[in-house]
Amino acid sequence: MRFNDAIIGLVLIVFALVAGYATRDFPQIPGQSYGAALFPRLLCVGFAVCGLLLIASGMRQRATAGAWLDLDDWARSFSGPLTLAITIGGMVFYILVSESLGFIPTAFLMTASLLLRLRGRWISSLAIAAMVTMVIHQIFYKLLLVPLPWGVLEPLVF
Amino acid sequence: MDAFLLALPLVFQPNVLAVMAMAAIFGLFVGSVPGLTATMATALLVPLTFFMDPVPAIAAMVTATAMAIFAGDIPGALLRVPGTPASAAYASEAFAMTQKGLAERALGTSLVGSAIGGMFGTVVLVLSAPQLAEVALQFTQFEYFWLACLGLSCAVFVSTASPTKGTVSLLIGLMLATVGIDITAGHPRYTFGIPDLLGGVAFIPAMIGMFAVAEILRNVVSTRVIEPPKLEHLFRVFHGLGGVFKRYWRGLVRGSVLGTAVGILPGAGGDIAAWVAYALSKKLSKEPEKFGTGHVEGIVDAGAANNAALSGAWVPALVFGIPGDSITAIVIGVLYVKGMNPGPTVFMQNPELIYGVFITFFLANIVLIPFGFAAIGLARHILRIPRTIVWPIVLLFSMVGAYAIDNSLFGIVVMLSVGVLAFLMEENGFPVAPAILGLVLGPMLEGNFMTAMIKADGNLLGFFERPIAAALGAITLLLWSTPLILMAARRVRMHSATERG
């Protein structure tokens, strides 16, 4: 998934403008003419300059038959983006429900769905997911005393 | 010497040695699975070592990375797929040796070469760091500001073919570092009203995102299938090595020196060291035509260079708090999170800690030989583990690790966001190493810059008033203007060429 440099350059310039605008109410150090805004503003200038350079190189790419967006093999297929969606979706799912559902069920569901997607074998995927979830739970909950949430398994705490 | 004696019992303790042994096994595994890198090994270790004392924590990272960098050679030689980027330079060469039936020779050479290179880098570290720290004690904000600039500029120039993209990556890191309560005026910047961001972007989850999540995303979508190998049992690893090293001892020395030097340069680590060493070995060889056909000479140089770089990277990290590669960037970030400020004062206040690190390095490079030997023997089995099982496990481990630092789901949010960002960056040819250096050095760069500005009363010439600061500043400005000079030179050359032609 390769964007033409000019598109990235444009994004960087817009980002520099927005981030630079956000520094307008950063306070100054008493007795000085600069303050908390100085460093971020310098960075924004840097972003803008790099953005312009990238637009220039992107236009040169375009001139020699470069596309605006170049898709790799994985991005052009159906399965690549689907796997990506399942991986990222699994993490979002974990962030949203792990507190209420609990670590063990959430982690099991997330790991099992990704294993299934990558390997396609039901029984071994579910078994591996269950084992991995329990081992990681033991390492972090028992050994490192990280309070992983129990959620719906609260009555079964071990 | 006293510090050395004090450090011995810190390292030679059953629990520290046990941690090192486990880290060694972990490092060998991570290194020999293609796609899992030495940097990732460090990132994944952080949540575990976070709860340990400094010496075992650092010992675990040093051991795991030394093992991982060597272990990357195993799939490189047997499958032609480098286990870590540091082995990429000579994976085809080692594979060509395997096809000639010389797999044991290739792996034995890189194992012993790795240990010697690592040892050489360690000796340089031990000899130079305390001396440099004496000098560094004299430094003020002006020197540190220029030093940070210099380090970051190096990172931009060495990490990629396009300085513009390297700069953007660096700016992203620095920008992320500005999030949170500002150090000079106490004003919250770019926090969007989210209380979790007041303390800044959590470093450890960000780095797990950058090095683990991005790598996982890249691997799960990869369409490349790696065939599990049919392998003979490999055990005559050390047979005939004496002859190899006797013949190519110059290459061994050259690779070690070069690797250490590249490691010391901020932003450049084992992978760049190996590429440069391999290229130089070919250039200086008496029989360059043999390179690429399964010739052991380049492996001697490059195998030593990548492990030497690993040790070399700790020189600027320990002395100035400026990381020499992505791995030391992680270590330094973690030390900051733990409230220890890496830099010359550690040499004064906790010298036994520094000597503990030195001893760990020696130990790690010594045990590399037996552990590496065992890993080569077990390679048949390790390489048969399907990688499709590895990714979901690493993903869950990363998520729990990001959560464990503050026991907060926000850590996972940071990890995921930075991971997706790093994935997109690498897809588009932006290197991530400058970003992690920017994130680590951002607060130091801005803090020193602002204090120096106040000291100099806003007068930029104040940055050049002290002799060392002036020298460092001049070097930095020269480095910055190099691309412009090169561009101008190219224009002139092109112009004269068109006039002539």
Summed up:
With 158 residues, chain A is mainly α. Chain A is built from 6 helices and 2 strands; from the N terminus they run βααβαααα.
List keywords for this structure.
heterodimer; A: 158 residues; mainly alpha; 2 domains; two-stranded antiparallel ribbon; 6 helices; 2 strands; flat; B: 501 residues; 22 helices; globular
What does this structure look like?
- The complex is a heterodimer of chains A (158) and B (501).
- Chain A contains 6 helices and 2 strands, in the order E-H-H-E-H-H-H-H.
- Chain A is mainly α.
- Chain A has 2 domains: 2-70; 75-156.
- Chain A has a two-stranded antiparallel sheet with strand order 1-2.
- In chain A, helix 5 (103-119) runs antiparallel to helix 6.
- The longest helix of chain A is centred in the first third of the chain and has 26 residues, at 38-63.
- Chain B has 501 residues and is mainly α.
- The longest helix of chain B has 34 residues, at 103-136.
- The mean pLDDT of chain B is 87.
- Chain B is globular.
- The N and C termini of chain B lie far apart (68 Å).
- In chain B, strands 1-2 form a two-stranded antiparallel ribbon.
- Chain B has a domain at 2-138 and 234-396.
- Chains A and B meet through strand 1, helix 1, helix 2, helix 3 and helix 4 of A and helix 9, helix 10, helix 19, helix 20 and helix 21 of B.
What are the SSEs and their pairings?
The complex is a heterodimer of chains A (158) and B (501).
Chain A: E1 2-3, H1 5-21, H2 38-63, E2 69-70, H3 73-76, H4 79-101, H5 103-119, H6 122-143
Chain B: H1 2-11, H2 14-32, H3 38-49, H4 54-71, H5 73-79, H6 91-99, H7 103-136, H8 141-159, H9 163-178, E1 180-181, E2 188-189, H10 203-220, H11 241-247, H12 249-264, H13 270-284, H14 297-312, H15 314-320, H16 326-337, H17 344-349, H18 351-382, H19 387-404, H20 409-427, H21 433-455, H22 467-500
Antiparallel strand pairs in B: 1-2
Helix pairs in contact in B: 1-18, 2-3, 2-4, 2-18, 3-4, 3-10, 3-16, 3-19, 4-7, 4-14, 4-18, 5-6, 5-7, 6-7, 7-12, 7-14, 7-15, 7-18, 8-9, 8-21, 8-22, 9-21, 10-19, 10-20, 12-13, 12-14, 13-14, 16-21, 19-20
